[in-house]
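Example S7 (structure tokens).
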């Protein structure tokens, strides 16, 4: 049996996104979802979760639907694009954005105690098996983040091909995570 979670971001289930320099705004509903289900295939203590359109309107976000703890083995894959706001072609790849300021901005990030050094680029850990060290205390939610200098105009609205066509025929950002939960 799978479980599905929906999330809202911003003011009253939406966020204000400027449409023009004259100050008009539109409300963009957050479509972030988290879906989790048991692993199956004889794996007794595991689950797989998908995050569709992760939160990119703030620096860091907890995903309490996905709980991790010491000894858990995780594997995730992530891909897709994000609206970074501004003018012109403004969509960028979530993992390895291209174009001006992409060296320090527009990256998805992840924080896993005992594995990452605070919030680090998702790309560094994408498609790799990770084990949370046994000396990490307690349980904690998956934490994702996004690097930007203006979060108010980010999201998944007005899809374009992005800087250098990096988002041409590329879907909105997503992350799949498989967790083999540690047993005592």
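Recovered sequence:
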């Amino acid at each position: 049996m799978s479980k599905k979670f929906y999330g809202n971001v911003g003011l009253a289930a939406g966020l204000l996104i400027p449409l023009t320099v004259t100050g008009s705004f539109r409300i963009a509903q957050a479509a972030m979802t988290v879906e989790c289900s048991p692993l199956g295939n004889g794996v007794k203590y595991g689950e797989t979760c998908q995050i569709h359109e992760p939160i990119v309107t703030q620096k860091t976000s907890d995903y309490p639907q996905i709980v991790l703890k010491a000894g858990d083995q995780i594997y995730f894959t992530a891909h897709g694009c994000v609206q970074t706001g501004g003018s012109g072609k403004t969509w960028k790849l979530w993992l390895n954005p291209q174009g001006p300021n992409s060296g320090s901005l527009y990256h998805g990030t992840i924080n896993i105690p005992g594995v990452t050094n605070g919030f680090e680029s998702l790309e560094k850990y994408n498609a790799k098996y990770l084990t949370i060290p046994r000396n990490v205390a307690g349980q904690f939610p998956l934490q994702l983040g996004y690097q930007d200098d203006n979060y108010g105009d980010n999201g998944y609205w007005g899809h374009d091909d992005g800087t250098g066509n990096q988002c041409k025929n590329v879907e909105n950002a997503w992350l799949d995570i498989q967790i083999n939960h540690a047993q005592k």
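Notes on this example. Residues 46 and 180 are 4 Å apart (CA to CA).
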